[in-house]
Write a sequence for this structure.
């Protein structure tokens, strides 16, 4: 859903720098009377919780250069059966783990912790497991902490905004597919020192240059090339849908068109929330607070949004979804976006935070451009008003553990 490069959380990412036909509330909308922009609803009031403290780690446990989970250091956590976990959420996580197994078995794990074959026993067992979810995880996994284990969690959701498949009065914000002249360059092909790094741009004459930034695209640099797949009614709504990386367009006839991340222009992401707070424009850094200011100051708002030079290109989604970085549907209250250098994609994750809603077991099924480092997670809350309210204000801290196959943990942390 959030793409390999754009998975962006709301409340903190905005400060610092993821099906079927649905009849929208209010029924159909006349093409000549586009619906009002999405209201800047109020963030859900946090439910406080006391997190479990991370396991104390000695300085000698960690390598001098930390590039992945293995070099960050791994310590054994408590028995999974002793970890507090809501049964409903654990069941959702078990279903998501089952979905992720084919990818787990064949993916290269950039965290350095596992190999595909490590997951075979658990993936075979989950096919026919009929017991409770927590017992399954306790039977086939052990918990480990990566690095200091200090978790920071934000939230994302699948937004729904007003849109149209064709340009018409009230629908004039272009939603583009990936341009054919946008080129990905694997820098590792040119130098071993640049392995794992890539850039995007376009060819101009004999030179490779950066691709058009947001301001140029918004002003029409791609217009007339047949790249429009749909049109949004409101630029602010579309800006936030780009941050999410996928969403739903509420069509004039009452139907829904789902769109998902296809690519991005290669420009760096700038979190406008931090920018606005530093300038004294807002005091509330939540998505809702930012939207309120942008709506009340449209001209300045446009310029502020353009300071984020990143622009996302979309494709229409017709199957199950929204899809995460593994290519499988992400599930509300079950899927989290992670940095795959520190968490194997498909692995279960346990969170204990100072906010109760995200506590429990999740599955790493997505990634994000601003989700970087060990113990950094972005929780997916689904679609609808509740998901928007929780995700828009999610900012929680505490501790995190990763569930790895028992044999893997025995290899990584030999018994003393």
């Amino acid at each position: 859903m959030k793409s390999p490069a754009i998975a962006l959380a709301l409340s903190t990412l905005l400060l610092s720098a993821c099906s079927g036909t649905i009849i929208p509330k209010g029924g159909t909308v006349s093409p000549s009377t586009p619906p009002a922009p999405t209201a800047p609803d109020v963030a859900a009031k946090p439910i406080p919780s006391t997190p479990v403290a991370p396991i104390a780690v000695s300085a000698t446990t960690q390598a001098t250069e930390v590039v992945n989970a293995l070099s960050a250091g791994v310590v054994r956590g408590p028995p999974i059966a002793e970890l507090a976990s809501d049964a409903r959420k654990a069941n959702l996580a078990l279903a998501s783990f089952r979905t992720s197994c084919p990818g787990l078995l064949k993916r290269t794990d950039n965290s350095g912790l596992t190999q595909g074959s490590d997951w075979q026993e658990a993936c075979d067992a989950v096919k026919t497991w009929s017991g409770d979810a927590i017992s399954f995880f306790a039977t086939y996994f052990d918990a480990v902490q990566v690095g200091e284990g200090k978790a920071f969690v934000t939230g994302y959701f699948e937004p729904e905004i007003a849109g149209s498949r064709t340009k018409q009065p009230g629908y004039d914000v272009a939603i583009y597919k990936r341009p054919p002249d946008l080129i990905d360059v694997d820098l590792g092909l040119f130098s071993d020192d640049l392995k794992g790094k890539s850039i995007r741009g376009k060819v101009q004459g004999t030179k490779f240059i950066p691709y058009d930034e947001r301001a140029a695209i918004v002003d029409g640099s791609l217009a007339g090339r047949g790249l429009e797949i749909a049109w949004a009614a409101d630029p602010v709504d579309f800006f936030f849908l780009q941050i999410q990386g996928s969403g739903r367009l509420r069509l004039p006839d009452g139907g829904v068109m789902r769109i998902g991340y296809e690519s991005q222009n290669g420009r760096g992401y700038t979190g406008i929330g931090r920018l606005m707070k530093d300038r004294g424009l807002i005091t509330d850094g939540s998505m809702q607070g930012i939207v309120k200011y942008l709506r009340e100051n449209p001209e300045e708002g446009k310029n502020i949004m353009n300071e984020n030079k990143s622009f996302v290109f979309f494709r229409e989604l017709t199957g199950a979804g929204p899809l995460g970085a593994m290519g499988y549907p992400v599930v509300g209250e079950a899927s989290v976006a992670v940095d795959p250098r520190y968490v194997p994609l498909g692995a279960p994750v346990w969170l204990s935070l100072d906010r109760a809603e995200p506590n429990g077991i999740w599955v790493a099924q997505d990634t994000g451009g601003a989700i970087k480092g060990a113990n950094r997670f972005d929780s997916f809350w689904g679609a609808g008003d509740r998901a928007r309210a929780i995700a828009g204000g999610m900012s929680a801290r505490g501790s995190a553990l990763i569930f790895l196959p028992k044999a893997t943990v025995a290899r990584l942390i030999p018994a003393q």
